[in-house]
Amino acid sequence: MAPGAAAESNLSPSQDKEAKGEQLPGADENIDADDVDDLEDGVAAEATGTGDAKKKKKKKKPKKKKLEQTDPPRVGLSKFYPNGIYPEGQIQPYKDDNAWRTTSEEKRYLERMANEEPETTYQNIRRAAEVHRQVRRYARKMIHPGMTMTEIAENIENTTRALVEENGLESGIGFPTGLSLNNCAAHYTPNAGDTVVLQKGDVLKVDFGVHVKGRILDSAFTLNFEPTYDKLIEAVKAATETGVREAGIDVRLGELGALIQETMESYEVEVNGKVYPVKPIENLSGHSINPYQIHGGKSVLLVKNEDQTRMEEGEYFAIETFGSTGRGRIVESGDCSHYAKTYNAPHVPLRLTSAKSLLNSITKNFGTLPFCRRYLDRVGESKYLLALNHLVAQGIVQDYPPLCDQRGSMTAQFEHTILLRPTVKEVVSRGDDY
Q1: How much is the pLDDT for 114?
Q2: Residue ranges of region Disordered (predicted)?
Q3: Catalytic, out of 132, 211, 295, 390
Q4: Category of 172 on φ-ψ map: left (φ > 0), alpha (ψ -120 to 50) or beta
Q5: N or C: which terminus of the chain carries fewer CB neighbours within 10 A?
Q6: What phi and psi values does residue 150 have, to the nearest 5 degrees?
């Protein structure tokens, strides 16, 4: 074919039929649009002498790269859920007298109103829950003997801040990262200068919280690195599952405590040939959660008691259980790290200028959310212990010292948060791990 010749006069009969859109004998009837374009391009190329028709192909647009989480996780969660709708937790139907709620049109309507739009209570809680799941997945992989408590805490907190996209009191850490070891059951996080190192024989409780618009996700688990206390951990996990399963609208808190106790006490632990019963820690409890208030007023004790208070529709509970090989009762012990501004704190005159300044800083940065001394360091406070103790003495700030069973004993903890929706119970913190 001579260059520059007219395409019409040089087409073969078959090419002429192609150009007119006629079907060629034996051609694939299912040819797609891209193939037609390629064929037409090839015909034109052959007619004009500008290229090889067989090699000419239409350029395809490059595929958009899928967004992936980094390691350690640092990509904010909203990037993965741009529509503001976050994963629902595990759904459990109510039992017995409340089973009707599942099909009630009235209750289903209330759910639709509360459940479908972004920026609702449900979506705020679920966003915090998904952050918690991703952070603890990383934490379980990251934590190992030989690390300091400060390293562990800061890794967890930095990951939480990144994923929840920390923004003042709009979203952030729900409370200090609890890393209580062995006989210490709760309320320990390292202060500045802490040099404690995690050992292979330790039993570590990891208790951390995430909040979105004051809706706190409170969940905890226990790690060990050799099998001696496997049964202790199994007992506490089972007791928490009992509490989650049996909780519900109209359930009496005292009766729920009895069921938790029964499960916990069905286990025992053998250590160096000696058998220890697993005891629920009788003066610790789960609790209701209110906006910006980690302890909302109702308590779920871990033993049978006479509390006739009922759980109610719409309430949000942390079901947490603690088991021990010791006496099953904790006392305050050690340097305090956890604090929180008292909800509805009294208005009292403060004689220390430093206390007034510190209170303003606490109110601005934490509101009524719990904080620790490391968090005060982080926002630029220094030499604040005298002022902090004065705020505690005046009842404006509450201190929460470490809570420990007797020396030589071991304690474990598991915790889930549950939402008592109008039709069903949602275990919002449920994950693949627990």
Answers
A1: 72
A2: 1-95
A3: 295
A4: left
A5: N
A6: -65, -40
Q: Choosing from 18, 157, 218, 315, which is the catalytic residue?
A: 218
Q: Would you say residue 162 has pLDDT above 80?
A: yes
Asked whether residue 262 is marked as a ligand-binding residue, the answer is no
Contact 169, 350 (CB under 8 A): no
Does 144 participate in catalysis according to the annotation? no
In this prediction, residue 102 carries a pLDDT of 86
Question: Binding residue per annotation — 295?
Answer: yes
Q: Establish whether 415 is an annotated binding residue.
A: yes
CATH numbers and ranges of domains, the chain: 77-328+409-427 (3.90.230.10), 339-399 (1.10.10.10)
What are the angstrom distances between the C-alpha of 22 and each of 14, 18, 25, 28?
Answer: 9, 6, 10, 12
Decide if 202 is catalytic: no
Is 165 catalytic? The answer is no
Query: Has 211 been annotated as catalytic?
Result: no
What are the C-alpha distances in Å from 345 to residues 66, 321, 395? 48, 29, 7
Question: Is 320 noted as a catalytic residue in this protein?
Answer: yes
Catalytic residue among 157, 241, 381, 415: 415
Say if strands 279-280 and 316-324 run parallel, antiparallel, or are unpaired: antiparallel
Over residues 362-382, mean pLDDT: 98
pTM attached to this predicted model: 0.84
Catalytic member of 157, 241, 282, 320: 320
- Give the pLDDT of residue 29: 40
Is 416 part of any known ligand binding site? Answer: no
**Catalytic option among 46, 157, 207, 241:** 207
Distances (CA, A) of 206 to 55, 281, 321, 362: 61, 17, 13, 25
Query: Is 207 one of the annotated active-site residues of the chain?
Result: yes
Q: How far out from the chain centre does Cα 118 lie?
A: 18
By CB atoms closer than 10 A (0-12, 13-18, 19+), residue 339 is buried
Q: What is the pLDDT of residues 266-279, one digit of tens each?
A: 999 999 999 999 99
In degrees to the nearest 10, what's the CA dihedral of 182, 189, 237, 368? Answer: 150
Residues 380-416 have pLDDT tens digits of 999 999 999 999 999 999 999 999 999 999 999 999 9
pLDDT tens per residue across span 229-246: 999 999 999 999 999 999
Q: CA 64 to CA 61: how far, in whole Å?
A: 9
Q: What's the pLDDT tens digit per position in 29-41?
A: 444 444 434 444 4
With pLDDT > 70 as the criterion, what percentage of the chain qualifies? 85
306 marked ligand binding residue: no
